[in-house]
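We modelled the chain as a single entity of 472 amino acids. Its sequence is:
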Amino acid sequence: MSVAARLKQFMESHKVGYRVLYHARADHLKDPIAQLDLNPQFCAKVMGVADEKGVLIAIIPMNAQLNLPALNKLTRREFKVTSRLVLDKLFIDCEPGAHPILAEPYGVNMVVDSSFHQAKDIYFSSGTHTALVKIAKDDLRFLTANQMWGPIAFVNNSVKNFSLLKQNEADEQLAPFSIPFIDPLVQASHSHYQLPKLPEMLMNLISLGKWQTPAVDKIFEVLNEDKSLTQSISGFIQSQSQYLKAGNLQMAFEMGLDYDTFLVYAMRYSIEQQFQLPKVGPLGLNAFWLYAQSCALLSKYLAKECKPALGIVPCVANLCGLVHNFGLLLMGHWFAPEYRLMNKLMGLNPKEPITKLEKRIIGMGHAQQAFENGHAILGAWLMNYWHMPPEVLAVAKFHHSHYDGEHAPYVDLVVVVDQLLKTIELGDGENAPLNEARLHRLGLSHQIIDATLQRVFDEHPHLSKVSMSTCA
């Protein structure tokens, strides 16, 4: 099926011409739009909003953000943005996340942004992740004659690179953002500010675990895409752990190496050599990687104990725990003198929140701006730059601040894990009792947490012996 059945029947029953543009399977509209070299201004995405009267679909350009106050003024209602899951339920014959802009065949009203008046043709999801639909603007006007059009979007001029935009950006708190002082640094030719690239194989490996733990044969299909990198990662794993001592990578998986653990090692190998940071101290590389790996492990284990209705995917929780503090790596790589000072301050003041220590750093120019923004904002920017899943972006951006968006369960989970690791002097979690409301939202009790911690310590005894002295 290249076009959702209801969508196809609706267009053909109105005798409207359309063209189907096929492309390789892609999770985000940005990928086929880039492959087909389409103007994102004339490519439409779906935003779901709702109030007490029900759900409404807003249709806006891919390079724009929803102007919610303008929409509310136009409709004289008080909408709030809904999650993607709400849209998945509405578009019942479509693949999850692939939402066509014609909402009438699904029994939903819609508002179309008036900027599409400037288009000759408009492109949108076919209801699948393997094709787009091209339709003439005049035909769209005909099909939406009973629907409202109006100025409900504004173009995000701060985002110059369209690839940073995600399909169905239904979470306004995670809207594409830019940090003014970073953009010129990255765009400059000065090698000091160049960012490390994530290998395509690694990104494909991450995509495998978006919904569930992938089968070993699927993992090896991805690993075979870059055998040289796979061999290098295998050598790194052999030097760091008990895996691969007795044979090759295939045997390691048979002996207990799992997807999540392999991903941790692959991520570390792929970027560690590209970031230049001190090795010792609470923010040194030794402590950082021990913390990151521990956070990934605990996040994955506790994800399995959370309320099933939350839909927390253990593989995604593992990734969130691993990379959510990478803003620290970026800080240390770009602004070494100031980072060394913060590393020293954290060692002298282990109970002081890192968000306060960042504000105490006096730097010059871009360094001052970086520490004022804080590592969470820098980390979220980096995750966006790397096209990480939105759950990861949410955790990176909000693990030190309030967030109640679609991906709040992942943020809550990692905040809990950060606090637990802080009790063994790892990481930057808050020195405070666990928030009971947060535990209730996750469905975690202190008994479950204690039992999970004991299980982790039993299976990974090196964690129970951790102290900052081991990282010195």
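As a brief sanity check on the tokenised model: Confidence is low (pLDDT under 50) at residues 157-170, 465-472. Residues 5-164 form a domain with the YbaK protein fold (CATH 3.90.960.10).
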